[in-house]
Amino acid sequence: MTDVAAEAGVAVQTVYFVFHTKPELLAACYDLAVIGSPDGVPPSKQAWHLAMTAATTAPDSVSHLIDGTTAICERVALLDDTVRAALHEPEAVAVHKRGERFRRQDFELIVKHWAASFGLRDGLSATTCVDLLLTYTGPSTYRQLVVDYGWTDAAYRSWLHESLTGLLQSPVG
Questions:
Q1: Is 108 exposed, middle or buried (0-12, 13-18, 19+ CB in 10 A)?
Q2: 3-state SS assignment for residue 20
Q3: What is the pLDDT of residues 12-43, one digit of tens each?
Q4: Which of 59, 71, 166, 170 lies 20 to 30 A from 21 at CA?
Q5: Are 165 and 59 in contact (CB under 8 A)?
Q6: CB atoms within 10 A of CB 168
Q7: Does any domain span residue 3?
Q8: Which of 43, 31, 32 is nearest to 105 (CA)?
Q9: pTM
Q10: Which of 158, 172, 160, 69 is nearest to 119 (CA)?
Q11: Torsion sign over Cα 34, 130, 152, 78
Q12: Which residues contact 36 (CB under 8 A, 6 or more apart)?
C-alpha cells in the first residue's frame, strides 16, 4: 500500500481510506484492467461483445471475440502474473477465483450462443469448449506468446482465429 501511495503521489492513509485492504485494491486494479476505464462497462456490454453476438457468421463472431479478449489481455496479462505470484495469500486467491468465475460465466454464455448459432465441432462438448476458450484467450497464454516469445499482435490474432474457428462448425442447410 505504501508503494502504491508513493507512485500515486498520495498519503498511504488515502489509499487505505479508498480501498481499505490490499485485496480490495487488487480487485479494483483487476476490475479496471478488465473493463478498460473507470467509467467503463462490463465486457458483456461492450461493443465488441455485442458485435460478437450479432455476427451472422462464425468467423466474424470469432473476430469480434478476439478483438475484445486481446484488448483485455493487453491490460491484464502482467497484473495476472502478479496475482498468480501471490497465490500463497488467501486474499489473492479469492481475487483470482472471482475473476476466473466471471470469465467462465461469460464464456459459458458465449459457447451457448455459438452452439445455437453456428454449432460446435463434432464431438466437442460445451464444457470442453469453455475450457479451451478460457485457455486460448487467457492472459497467461497471451503473455507467454506475445510478451515472452515475441509474437506480433497479428500472429497472435491469426493463431487465435484459426484455433477458435476450429471449435465451431457452420450449420448445414
A1: middle
A2: coil
A3: 888 777 787 777 777 777 777 778 777 778 88
A4: 71
A5: yes
A6: 22
A7: no
A8: 43
A9: 0.82
A10: 172
A11: positive
A12: 46, 71, 72, 75
- Asked if residue 126 belongs to a domain, the reply is yes
Residue 128's domain comprises: 43-165
Q: Is residue 27 part of a domain?
A: no
CA-to-CA distance for 145 and 166, rounded, in angstroms?
19
pLDDT for residue 87 is more than 60: yes
Domain annotation covers residue 22: no
Cell of 16: 487505505
Residue with cell 461469460: 106
State how far the alpha carbon of 20 is from the alpha carbons of 13, 16, 54, in Å: 9, 4, 41
Q: How far apart are CA 112 and CA 8, in angstroms?
A: 42
List C-alpha distances in Å: 1 to 10, 40, 60, 160, 166. Answer: 11, 25, 43, 37, 45
Q: Is residue 120 helix, strand or coil?
A: strand
Q: What is the pLDDT of residues 95-154, one digit of tens each?
A: 888 888 999 999 999 999 999 999 999 999 999 999 999 999 999 899 999 999 999 999
Higher pLDDT, 93 or 153: 153
